[in-house]
Structures are given as C-alpha cells and as structure tokens.
C-alpha cells in the first residue's frame, strides 16, 4: 500500500484525524516509514530587510516554539 507517509500537523482537529488514520495504517503495515512535520504560523513574526530579505527574531521564534510545546 504505502511505503512512506508524511504527516503534517498543526494541532488542529483535522490534523488529529490524519494522525489517527496514519496510526491505523501503521498497524496494518509496521514497515511504513512515517515522518511527522509540525507546522505553525510565523507570518506575523518576521521582519523585512531593505533588500527584501526575511528575518526572524530568534528569541521570538524560541518563545513561540516553547509555547506550542507546552
């Protein structure tokens, strides 16, 4: 059936349903390789340089990741 699954999650109810289904598939075939990617929105936490480059404040990024982990 599947050899690899990429499970992208953002903590939403739909992501939880996808995780449950992924677990179901893995029970059917323990050889399935699964990678989990946690996604969160940082669009409001970036800074644009004068040359158009995008910068993130590392402290803000660390605080956001700790908030999500809790």
From TrEMBL:
Leader sequence residues: none
InterPro entries hit by this protein: Rossmann-like_a/b/a_fold (IPR014729), UspA (IPR006016)
Domain UspA: 1-47
Name of protein: Universal stress protein
Organism from which the protein derives: Heliomicrobium undosum
């Amino acid at each position: 059936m599947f050899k690899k699954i990429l499970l992208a999650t953002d903590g939403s109810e739909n992501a939880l349903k996808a995780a449950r289904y992924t677990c179901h598939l893995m029970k059917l075939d323990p050889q399935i390789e699964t990678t989990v990617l946690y996604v969160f929105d940082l669009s409001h936490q970036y800074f644009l340089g004068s040359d158009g480059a995008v910068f993130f404040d590392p402290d803000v990024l660390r605080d956001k990741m700790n908030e999500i982990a809790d």
